[in-house]
Prior knowledge:
With 321 residues, the chain is an alpha/beta fold. It has 13 helices and 6 strands. The longest helix has 20 residues.
Amino acid sequence: MEEQGPATTGFFRPDLDNVYVDVRVSPEAPQLVPTGLVAEMIADDPQKRRNLQEFINQSVPSVLAVVGAPGSGKTTLLRKTALDICKKSKARRDVPLLLYLRDHVTLIVQDPQVDIVTLVRRHLERFRVEDPPGWFDRRLRAGKCVVLLDGLDEVADEADRRAVSEWVGHQVDKYHKNDFVITSRPQGYLTAKVDKALVLKVQPFTSDQTTRFVHRWYEAIESRAAGVGDDAVMLRAAAAANDLLDRLDNTPALYELTVNPLLLTMIVNVHRYRGALPGRRVDLYGEICEVMLWRRQEVKNWRLKWAATRRKRCCDCSPTR
Length: 321
């Protein structure tokens, strides 16, 4: 989990593999994808809740737009997809290319002819890694890649967002043998749709997913704190997880927030590092506002137009409205 959680997150963040719970998707018209943080909790219907892996690495390449509300797990889904592809020895397309569009929008807008290979090399320069000459281009032309492009909506300027969307379309045409997956919030996607893309709506967490995440998170945290993962640690983790789940069962207003992975992560962190949950939903909103209004933007290097005092005033006022 990246550094975009609540202020009470603590010093340790679990490895993705240890806490990840499958983010499910389903085909949907983009205008019908909910925009709010909290959606209605639904049953785990296999026909309406599918794994992204079902749509990629098929005989016919896919162009997918994964659309969901803030905090619904879009970025984490791409990171886990890239990780899983790396672990598969016999995948049809075994090279994941994960790029965050916010890091490359300036170059794309300035030079719409720039290709994915150039962006990948530019990204690798940060880690002082050089790819063998022509390696990525050959893989792309051979159809061996799954191109994962995160955050179309994070391109703030609408004209720039459309330019990036058109650029994606050009890359799909140029490297048509590969899978392409692009993520966005609903509002951002509606103003800059990607040509030929099948829209997949991110589904909210079910009750079972919430339970699994809470238990996995506590197992990872308690094992780290103790330095071991023995039976005593697992029992302590289970007790803490069950305590949180019991508190949520008794606080319906907070339980409704658990359908959103980011909000659920906030709740688990607050319970772990404060030893309790707020009794009212509004008492949790301070943490939520802090994350959604500025801490996530700072982590993602978004330019903030509000002064700090104005952001703080909005955070102080919002729980009472």
